[in-house]
């Protein structure tokens, strides 16, 4: 009995030491650079696996160009529709479909949908001469944004290959635009003017139409930037009682929740949300215009990414804006200052904390992992 207890204690100690000795973190920060000869870039979308990032970068001539970045291929200029400028603002889950806006040969901005095989496709307008795309469904089949009508009225749209560009209406005011769409393309969010001339965040469905999400208590306006995979959680920003812009998270049951801001900053803006609605990213701004990227969760509140991931930043570098997050909340992209190059650049932040001793993958090395090791001690794969 004593021998058995001693052996068990020795084995336990060995396992604990092994878990401690092999613990490590795989978090990383990648600065994406810019196009050849350019001097700045910013990232606005990321694929589900973090392998593809899209955004806007300056070229050697100083024009803004839509880009698609991969680790193996670097930053690819997606071109234009015949003009000199473009920008990419959304990407499908697999990274194959990119949407955004580009100048055509007539000098008109047009919403586009890009694929490697088809190139940049002009999605047209609602009868006017201008359109812009900002969101795309997970499979790349549904695109949302805004376009001018024949009477030069700005309207949110939802585009599909079979149905073309559909006008989503308004809230009684003069304009509307769409910024985000659910994974299946069924829920669209954005902003519209109401009959009182107030800009309001909206949530649209085919059955319910455009729903006014209101604003923060005593606030005047709001805007929705994106929505969770199932369409139940909406994020954006709204005015509070002190006339300050504040990031919000909205649900049908809880209404519009003020997410606060970072210490020393009086404004905040939520730009994207994870698939399950639990992780929100964005940026905070102070009175002198300084910006800091943030991540919000219910358990931690709003955290400065520069503080949380300080070990990944070289001296003088800053993460100034977080603009998109992968569905699982692991990858965050945006823009910041890269002190090594002295440029404002797009970044890709991998927040995954992988501990080698985390056997069950819950992000913690604890007794549950140890028990798994003990119960399987001596087993072999066939």
Written description of the protein model:
The protein is mainly β. The chain has two domains: 1-26 and 369-382; 27-368, YVTN repeat-like/Quinoprotein amine dehydrogenase (Methylamine Dehydrogenase, Chain H, 7 Propeller). The protein contains three helices and 28 strands. The protein has helices at residues 2-22, 305-308, 367-375; strands at residues 28-31, 41-46, 53-58, 64-70, 74-77, 82-91, 98-104, 109-115, 119-122, 127-136, 143-149, 154-160, 164-167, 172-181, 188-194, 199-205, 209-212, 222-227, 234-239, 245-251, 255-258, 267-273, 280-285, 291-297, 301-304, 318-325, 331-338, 343-350. The strands form seven sheets. The chain has a four-stranded antiparallel sheet with strand order 1-28-27-26, with no helix packed on it. A hairpin with a 4-residue loop joins strand 15 (188-194) and strand 16 (199-205). It is globular. The two termini are 32 Å apart. The model is unreliable at 1-24 (pLDDT under 50).
